[in-house]
Specification:
With about 160 residues, this protein is mainly α. The chain is about 35% helix and about 10% strand.
Length: about 160
């Protein structure tokens, strides 16, 4: 998750147990709780967005993701994604594969395109008010929570 901090973009990562180095199946990647990342993430969200227009509107729905201990990263991500869709009043039909698929049309295969180290250059984002926009200007490619905390229910109109 990339959020807008007073010092610019801040990336919040979830630590995993034997995730990327051991070719673990996506559904089997476990979240590590060796340090209190949930508290750190929540404090970061609060310090960056507490004064935003809609933080209190979404706070109670988002807080459980930083209180409940999820065993698997996939389960955490899926529940969080479903929460986001609910806030946006969207109900997409998600489908999952049961095995690795090699031959996927290039326009549908985002596995190598979506990587935080090499972000995809998408079409220019519609600008909206951001909490620290007066300091650093508009920052594109922030997490959906930046948009939700800034625009509230109107966020769906900007997507």
């Amino acid at each position: 998750m990339r959020i807008y901090s007073p010092n610019g973009p801040l990336d919040l990562f979830l630590p995993v147990i034997k995730g990327s180095k051991y070719h673990t199946k996506m559904k089997d990647v476990k979240i590590s709780y060796d340090f209190k990342w949930q508290r750190l993430h929540w404090l970061s969200l609060e310090s960056c967005y507490r004064n935003s227009s809609y933080f209190e509107f979404y706070e109670d729905g988002l807080a459980p993701f930083y209180e409940k201990k999820y065993e698997f990263l996939f389960d955490y991500n899926l529940e969080l994604l479903q929460w986001v869709f609910k806030q946006l009043k969207k109900d997409p039909q998600l489908q999952f594969t049961t095995e690795y698929m090699d031959n996927i049309p290039a326009e549908s295969d985002f596995r190598s395109k979506l990587h935080f180290k090499n972000p995809v250059q998408a079409a220019p984002a519609k600008e909206y008010y951001q909490v620290f926009g007066d300091r650093s200007g508009f920052l594109p490619n922030m997490s959906i929570v930046d948009l939700l905390f800034s625009q509230g229910p109107q966020a769906k109109n900007l997507l």
